[in-house]
Automatic annotation (TrEMBL):
The lineage of its organism: Bacteria, Pseudomonadati, Pseudomonadota, Alphaproteobacteria, Rhodobacterales. Belongs to the FliN/MopA/SpaO family. SUPFAM superfamilies: Surface presentation of antigens (SPOA). Its main location: membrane. GO terms for molecular function: cytoskeletal motor activity. It holds the Pfam family FliMN_C. This is Flagellar motor switch protein FliN. GO terms for cellular component: bacterial-type flagellum basal body; plasma membrane.
Length: 99
C-alpha cells in the first residue's frame, strides 16, 4: 500500500520545477488563406477571405512553431457565453518530444 503523504512520481517534478508556473502563449490555427497579391490589395471592409478549412475541421494548437495538439472550436456556456474555447481531441507526447 502506498503512503498517502508521498506524491506519485509523475506529480513530484511538477511541484519542484520552477518553470511549472510560467505562462506560455498557445496559438490556435483555424486555417490559412493564400490570395494573390492583386486580390489582397483589393480587400476592404466587409471583404470575405476564404480559408483552406471548413467550420467543422479540427484546429491546430502551436507553441512557437511546434504543433502540440488538435481540437474542436466550441462556445463556452454560462457566464462566459460567447467566448471561444478549444476542446482537445489529440495531444502530442510532449514529455518524450514526439509530436
Amino acid at each position: 500500500m502506498m503512503d498517502s503523504s508521498t506524491d506519485s512520481p509523475s506529480r513530484q517534478p511538477e511541484a519542484t520545477n520552477p518553470f511549472s508556473s510560467v505562462p506560455i502563449e498557445i496559438t490556435i490555427s483555424v486555417g490559412k488563406a493564400r490570395p494573390l497579391i492583386r486580390d489582397l490589395l483589393k480587400l476592404g471592409k466587409d471583404a470575405v477571405l476564404p480559408l483552406d478549412k471548413r467550420v467543422d475541421d479540427p484546429v491546430e494548437l502551436y507553441v512557437g512553431d511546434r504543433l502540440i495538439a488538435r481540437g474542436e472550436l466550441e462556445e463556452l456556456e454560462g457566464d462566459q457565453k460567447g467566448q471561444l474555447a478549444v476542446r482537445l481531441t489529440e495531444v502530442a507526447d510532449l514529455k518524450d518530444g514526439i509530436a
